[in-house]
What we know:
Largest sheet: 5 strands, parallel
CATH architecture: 3-Layer(aba) Sandwich
Distance between the termini: 20 Å
Strand content: 15-25%
Number of domains: 1
Amino acid sequence: MYICILKEHSYCLKRTVQSTIIPVMSKINILGINSSPHKDGATVSLLKTVLNGAKKVGAATEIIHLYDFNIKPAPGNYSVDPKTEIVAKMPKDDMQKLYPKIIKADGLVLATPNYWANMSGVMKNFIDRLTPLENEGFKLERKIAAFIAVSKENEGGTEMAAMSMVSALGQMGVCIPPNGIMWHPGKWVRTEGADKSWAFTDAPEVGQTMVKLAQFFRN
Length: 219
């Protein structure tokens, strides 16, 4: 897993990286993955906030609503014969439509509601079906990825839902930007005052940083 850190004041990538990014001909493509059944709820709202930040610095964005797609559970090919854990051997369902979009994307934003301290079932199903991309040439390696988990109430477990996505995608080689693991609700009290939701405060900058990192890796 790459923990990519690109901010003005510190971290593992020097500040000079920002000034050496060279514009590319094609737009950076950031793909949002919504695993909530609701298209107008808090999960999508936070997802859109990240994507709007990416748009402001020139990215093309799209949201995939997983509930609109018929995606079957992973068939478990890897445990039988790893050579069969490839896209061509996967079920002929709607995930086949999504594989090209995922491969083309420079970045992914995975957004889930908190269901019993974990990601939603459709998100887990989606992540399981990414295994052929990891197994067949590490196609997710060095893609930029951010993660969102949202709960209606602050009943706990939302950070666990976020980290359950991180643990899988991290093994697949994605690069996580600063503040790229977000959960809501979550009040943030700091010297300058209090933010009702630190995730919504950070989200636009996360989107912008994803684009900068994607440009860095392209060059």
